[in-house]
Structures are given as structure tokens and as C-alpha cells.
Amino acid sequence: MLTIRWLGHAAVEIKFDGYKILIDPLLKDNPMNKVPIEEFKDIDLIGITHDHYDHLGDALELMKINQKAKLIATWDLENFLNKTHNIPWERMIPANVGSYIDVDQVKVALTKAVHSSEHGDPTGIVIKLGSTTLYHAGDTGLFEDMKLIGELFSPDYAMLPSGGRFTMDPYQCGIAASMIKPKKAVIPIHYNTWDLIKVNISDFEKYVKERGFKPLILYPGQEKEL
Q: Which ranges of the chain would DSSP assign to H, the alpha helix?
């Protein structure tokens, strides 16, 4: 069984046949998240799209809580985490934008994102779980290479930042969907956490539908079987 739970902002939990993944795990300072960090046990993989505090989030504490968890991010960010926070290399998966990497029972790839970051380039994350592929775009503006991401990875679901100002807005997410062409649904993330990224999410639904794709809007904490 494959499920996804949006924890608010860009934080997403994915479960696949008992395998647990957290992406951009902002938990404690996330006003949308109501789940205590102590409940996130037995995490197998933590994915970090870039090192802004609202995406690196509570990854360091989660690595301590979950002693068997592995972390994937760009090599530059991992090098920073190793040297500054003593995360051992044997618990990190060296990577950069490129092809799939086999990680335990899933496949993971990092993709381009148009944003900023202090250590290494920002990325998106593609995860292939069995026959289903999910694309978490991280923080990004609209860029034409999204067509390549769609062509290379053919995602079933695309999670797109929708709050504007720092990332795409709902209108631009509709254009992004038309380039990525997710086969099943488009999920909005990174919106309404704070006033600076406050949008009317019904606009996301409207613009995605106008492009011929299915919007899937989750409320914070909602878990959905895919």
C-alpha cells in the first residue's frame, strides 16, 4: 500500500509497504503540523530539497530519533551536514541532479529547481515506489526544463509549491502541470503557512483543471492512499 500525508508547508510523509519517507521535514516550527516529532519513528529515508530552514527543518533531530534512517540531498549539503553537524557519511546517500539511485526498496533521483540555497543547488526529488512515481518539486519557480522532468520520469503525482513570492503561484502551477504531465494528480504544497505565501487554493484547482489535469488538495495532516 502507498500513502501520502501532507504535514503542511513542504513537509510530506510517504509510506510504501512499511517503508517510510519524509521530505523537507519542517515539523516543530510548522504552524500547520499538529503531529509531535516524537511520533515520527521508524523513518527509513529523509529527503532534503535545499537547506533553507523551512525545508531542512527538523532533519537533524529526526536522524537522531531514527538511528537507521538515511538522508539524501545534494553532495554539497551533505558535506556541510557532515562537517558542521557530524552526520556520518555512511548515513547519507551522495547525490546530485541526475539519474535514479537505488535506495533500499525504492528509487530516488534529484532534479533541477530554480530557487536559492546556501550549500549546493536547490533540487526537486523524484521517488519511484513500485509502479508509482512521485515528484516533489521542492521550492522552485516555473522553468521550461520541467518538460524534461516529465519526459524522463513520467510521474504519476506532482507536488508543486503554490504560494507565490518565493515559488510558483497557482496560475504558474497550471502551466507547470502542462509541462510535467502527471498521469494521476497534482498536489499543492508550500502555501498558506504564513501570510507571505497566502493564496486562494481554489485558484490552484481552477488552473490545474483548465490545463486538463486532476488537482488533489490535501488538508494538513490528511493521509491519502494513492
A: 53-56, 59-65, 75-85, 146-153, 170-180, 201-210
Q: Is the pTM here over 0.85, yes or no?
A: yes
**C-alpha closest to that of 45 among 77, 71, 10, 63:** 71
C-alpha–C-alpha distance, residues 42 and 51, integer Å: 23
Structural domain spans, the chain: 2-219
- Give tens-digit pLDDT for 137-149: 999 999 999 999 9
In angstroms, the CA 89 to CA 94 distance is 8
> pLDDT tens, 71-108?
999 999 999 999 999 999 999 999 999 999 999 989 99
Determine the Cα angle at 224 with ends 12 and 20, to 5°. Answer: 45
Architecture of domain 2-219: 4-Layer Sandwich (3.60)
Report the half-sphere exposure of 97 (CA within 13 A, side-chain side).
Answer: 17
